[in-house]
Structures are given as C-alpha cells and as structure tokens.
Amino acid sequence: METLRNKILKYGHAIDENILKVDSFLNHQVDPNLMYDIGTNFKNYFKDKNITKVFTIESSGIAPAVMTALQMNIPMVTLKKNTSKILNDDFYQTTIHSFTKEIDYTLTLSKKYITSKDNILIVDDFLANGEAASGACRLVEEIGAKVAGIGIVIEKSFQPGRKLLDDKGYDVYSLARISKLGKGLIEFIK
Ligand code: 5GP
C-alpha cells in the first residue's frame, strides 16, 4: 500500500534494528483517512472469505480493525490484555509474550462475542515474532471457530512472525513489508 509506505518513510522512526515507532499516525496519534484506506484494502483482499467478525488485540490494532469492520459491515471485537488470569467461566483466555515490553500477558475474550460458527479476520498493527497473532488464532481455534485470515498493517519481514504464520497455513496479508531497519534506515520488500 503506497500511501502507507510513504507515511512510514516520512514519519516513521526506526529507533534501532528492531523497533519502528509510528506514533504520529498509528500508535499514539491516529490518521483516520489512512485508517479508512487500510480498512478498504483489507476489505478488498478478504472480501470472498465470508468473514463474520474482525478481532484485534488491545490497543493499537483497534483503529485499523474498526475501519475494516466498518467497511465489511460486521462487528469488531477487542481481545483485552490482562496481567493475570480471570478466574471466571464467562471468559476465554490465552497467554502471550510481548515482543516490545518483554513480559507475558493474558488475552481475554468474553464468551458472549464468539461462537464456533464464526469466521474471524484478525487485524493487528505490527507483526514481529508472531506471538500476538498466534495467540489470537489459538484463542479462536480453541473455541472451534475459524481464522479466515490475518491482516497486518506493518510487517517486519526480517523477524520470525511471517514465516511462523505462513508455516501454520494462515492467509496473511500485510500492507507494508519491511525488509530492514536501522538508525535512520527503513527499507521495504519490493
Ligand atoms: P509479535 O507478537 O508479532 O512479536 O509483536 C506484535 C505486537 O508487538 C504488535 O501488536 C505491536 O503492538 C508490538 N510491536 C512489535 N514490533 C513493533 C514495532 O516495531 N513497533 C511498535 N510500535 N510496536 C511493535
């Protein structure tokens, strides 16, 4: 997605070889026009997949996910991050390791917002090691629902997440694929 790549080049900031900051349009301040175009791209790519709900992971995936859900005219559900397990039968939970924060957290989903008949599109802001996306897939599949695809705004293709999800057979669609990061350097897969 060219507009996204241009935004990343203009406003993104690689703090080292691993982490890209995009606070001015995605992770802190949000560019709603860009989010709308992201939603259009995901809708067009996944339009034949009979998706019933868009799931995302709290909190930076919410803006692109809600725009995607708006255009698909289906609900968006946020998987909430908790630091500990909720001992309550009303929720499904799974544990994830955070790439950026180097901690474990629990993804929580109310039983009210999924059934085994659902066909889920998972949308997230970044793909790095694939822990967040794999955890979301695990949660969906443990319930007996289907993962129809995974939409990623920014994929760091030099990290293991993309291969992990490809090897598991998921349909992964990333709007910007970064091949290399460094101080002041951002390169995309051509
Ligand atoms: P993963 O689980 O794939 O290792 O990491 C994905 C999650 O970590 C994303 O939901 C995102 O919040 C965060 N993340 C991973 N890499 C980056 C990065 O380079 N920049 C930012 N801002 N967040 C990242």
TrEMBL record:
CDD domains for the chain: PRTases_typeI (cd06223)
Chain positions recorded as 5-phospho-alpha-D-ribose 1-diphosphate binding sites: 128-132
One annotated Gene Ontology cellular component of this protein: cytoplasm
Gene3D superfamilies listed in its UniProt record: 3.40.50.2020
Catalytic activity: XMP + diphosphate = xanthine + 5-phospho-alpha-D-ribose 1-diphosphate
Residues annotated for xanthine binding in this entry: 20, 27, 156
Keyword Transferase: yes
SUPFAM superfamilies, alphabetized: PRTase-like (SSF53271)
The organism's place on the tree of life at top rank: Bacteria
GO molecular function: xanthine phosphoribosyltransferase activity
InterPro entries: PRTase-like, PRTase_dom, Pur/Pyrimidine_PRTase, Xanthine_PRibTrfase
EC number: 2.4.2.22
Keywords: Cytoplasm, Glycosyltransferase, Purine salvage, Transferase
Cellular compartments annotated: Cytoplasm
A biological process term (GO) from this entry: purine ribonucleoside salvage
Domain Phosphoribosyltransferase: 32-167
Broad class of where this protein is predominantly found: cytoplasm
Residue ranges of the TM segments: none
Known pathway: Purine metabolism; XMP biosynthesis via salvage pathway; XMP from xanthine: step 1/1
Record function comment: Converts the preformed base xanthine, a product of nucleic acid breakdown, to xanthosine 5'-monophosphate (XMP), so it can be reused for RNA or DNA synthesis.
Family in the record: Belongs to the purine/pyrimidine phosphoribosyltransferase family. Xpt subfamily.
NCBIfam families referenced in this protein's UniProt entry, alphabetically: PRK09219.1 (NF006671), XPRTase (TIGR01744)
PANTHER family in alphabetical order: HYPOXANTHINE/GUANINE PHOSPHORIBOSYLTRANSFERASE, XANTHINE PHOSPHORIBOSYLTRANSFERASE
Subunit composition and interactions: Homodimer.
Name assigned to this protein: Xanthine phosphoribosyltransferase
Organism (species): Clostridium tyrobutyricum DIVETGP
